[in-house]
Please model this.
Amino acid sequence: MKIRWKTACFLVVFILDIIFAKTMYLSYMDVKNSLFLPAGADEEAVDEVRRQFSGDKQIALTFDDGPHSVYTPRLLDGLRKRGVHATFFLLGENVEGKEAIVKQMDEDGHLIGNHGYSHVQMSKELVGTACQQIEQNNRKIEEITGVRPQYLRPPYGSWNEELECTTNMTVVLWNLDPLDWKSKNTKKVARYIVKHVEPGDIILLHDVYPSSVEAALEVIDTLTKQGYTFVTVDELLID
Ligand SMILES: [Zn+2]
Model:
């Protein structure tokens, strides 16, 4: 009789435990589903939350003003070693004589975009002149890689929406600027990026400075450990 009483007590406690655990679980799921996604959240917000919480920490490293005869190959080696793809916005006048570097860039799987022919503010140019420069650079890159660039980054981020020659191109700006051209300091640039980066960021760098190349490789090593992956701008924009 004594043993049966104990068994009954045990069973009751056991069943109560199960009921309690189930209730806790259901209320946890309720909170979990409503915590970050308020009813009526638009699709963009839902996507952003999904991106933040799915571990999909993608960012794009972009390099302007190159190629440089020494620092760009150094960067390409570092990226290849790490299995990372980046986006390069090439300056036409710097492509001249460095065709082999551009070919390597393409063969390594990086995305090549257009940064104009010379480093001028496109918004201040005559439409005809600006378009001629963009076209000249597109042709030059296409001659080397066989692919016509589809992405344009105007110098200083300044461009004229009336540039009809760009209607088939996608203008890509940036949202994280460590001002690498100003400090030319590896540690400072790397620290700035690691501190401020968020999933989905397009980071602006210049592969014509050794400090920027070193900083980029340092950032890749640090952020890879934090679960970030590096994609080209087209991959980021498609997502
Ligand atoms: Zn530039």
Summary: The chain has two domains: 2-53, 58-238. Residues 2-35 form the longest helix (34 residues).
